[in-house]
Amino acid sequence: MTDAPLTDTPLVDPSPADPVADTITLPPVAPAPYTDQQYPEGRPGGEPLAGLETREVSAWFGSRKVLERVSLAMPAGEVTALIGPSGCGKSTYLRILNRMHEMVRGAALSGEVLLEGDDVYRPGRRPAEVRRRIGMVFQRPNPFPAMSIQDNVSSGLKLAGIKASKEERRHLVETSLRRAGLWDEVSTRLHTPGGALSGGQQQRLCIARSLAVSPDILLMDEPCSALDPTSTRRVEETIAELRGRLTIVIVTHNMQQAQRVSQTCAFFLATHDTPGRIVEAGPTEQVFGSPRDQRTSDYVNGRFG
Ligand SMILES: Nc1ncnc2c1ncn2[C@@H]1O[C@H](COP(=O)(O)OP(=O)(O)OP(=O)(O)O)[C@@H](O)[C@H]1O
Ligand SMILES: [Mg+2]
Q1: Residues sharing a CB contact under 8 Å with residue 64, sequence separation 6 or more, in sequence order
Q2: Which of 55, 59, 99, 252 could tie 112 with a disulfide, CB 3.0–4.6 Å?
Q3: Using CA atoms, how far apart are residues 110 and 129, in angstroms rounded to an integer?
Q4: Using DSSP, how many helices (H) and how many strands (E) does the chain show?
C-alpha cells in the first residue's frame, strides 16, 4: 500500500479478529524432560529468526491522522525500543504491527508492515495468523485470574488452532514458563490460579502465555509500568534472555530501561497536534550517546516529555 489520501473508509478491514483461526502445525517437541540442549538459540528446526520492518506507515482515527510515514527496521533477534512523549503514537504503531489497530472502529492506515519481507496486510492474509506470529504483552498484566497457571499458559493454543497432546501441552507449559523466567517460582503450584501471583509474576505469566504459541515477534507496550522495581528487573532479565530467540519491540517511558534492554531505539514525536513521526532511530548507544537531532537529545536527557 502507498500513502493514501484521507478517507472515511478504513484501508484495512475493520472487522474484529477472525472467528475461526488457522490450524497451525505444532513445532516438533521432544517428550523428554527439559534440558538446555533441547532448546538451542533460535526457532525450532534452526530456522532463521524473523525481523519486522515498516515502510511509510501512516495511521488515522476517523479524520485525525496520528502517525506520519513511519519507516523502521526492527532487526531479527534483537530488542527495539520505542520511546517518545505521551500521545505521539507509540501504542498505535505497536498495534498496527500485529493488526490490532483495525479492531478500532474508524481506524485506518496506509503503508507496509513486512514480516520476513511479506506484508502482514497482504489481501487474503488472516489477522489471526498474523497475531499468532506477532504476540503482544500489555501494560497491565492480564492473565485469566481464576484459571490455573498451566491453563493460562496453554490458553493461546486453542485460540490459535494449535493441536497438542496432553504430554506436548505439559512440555510446552514448562518450556514457556522457563523461557519467561517463571518456572522456578511456580513449578510446584501449576494448578493454582494465575490471579494469585504477584504483579511481576503475572506479567511473566503473560509473557509465557505469548511464548507458548511460538511467536516470531513479541510486542510489549510498557510491560513494566505497573510493576515495582524488583519485578521490573526480573522482566528486564527475561527480555534479555529472550533476545536471540525471537524479535522484541518494546514501548517504554523509562530511559534507563530502553538503554538496558534494547539494541535499536526509535524516538517518536508529535508536535503541535501534528501526527507522530520518527525523529531519529538507530543503535541505542548512538541515540542516547550521540543523538543527531537536538529534540532527541532533549528528550533522552529528560528536558521535556
Ligand atoms: N481508540 C482511539 N480513538 C481515537 N483516538 C485515539 C485512539 N487511541 C489513540 N488515539 C489517539 O492517537 C494518538 C496516539 O495515541 P497512542 O495511544 O498511540 O500514544 P502513545 O504514544 O502510546 O501515548 P502514551 O505514551 O500515553 O501511551 C493520541 O492523540 C490519541 O489520543
Ligand atoms: Mg501508549
Answers
A1: none
A2: 55
A3: 20
A4: 10, 10
276 forms bridges with which residues in the sheet?
A: 67
- Of 129, 171, 131, the C-alpha closest to 153 is 171
- Ion ligand 2 — residues with CB < 5 Å: 91
Q: How far is CA 171 from CA 121, 140, 302, in A?
A: 33, 27, 45
DSSP conformational letter for 78: S
Specify burial of residue 239 (Cβ count, 10 A radius: 0-12, 13-18, 19+).
buried
Q: Which amino acid is at 121?
A: Y
Residue nearest to atom 1 of ligand 1 (CA): 104
Whole-model pTM: value is: 0.86
**Grid cell listed for 161:** 488452532
Instruction: Identify the residues whose C-beta falls under 6 Å from ligand 1.
Output: 61, 66, 86-92, 104
What's the rounded mean pLDDT across residues 155-159? 85
Looking at the CA of 253, name the nearest ligand.
1
- Non-local (6+) Cβ contacts of 191 within 8 A are 148, 149, 150
**What is the chain's length?**
305
CA of 87 to the centre of ligand 1 (A): 5
Residue nearest to atom 26 of ligand 1 (CA): 86
- Whole-angstrom Cα distance, residue 76 to residue 16? 28
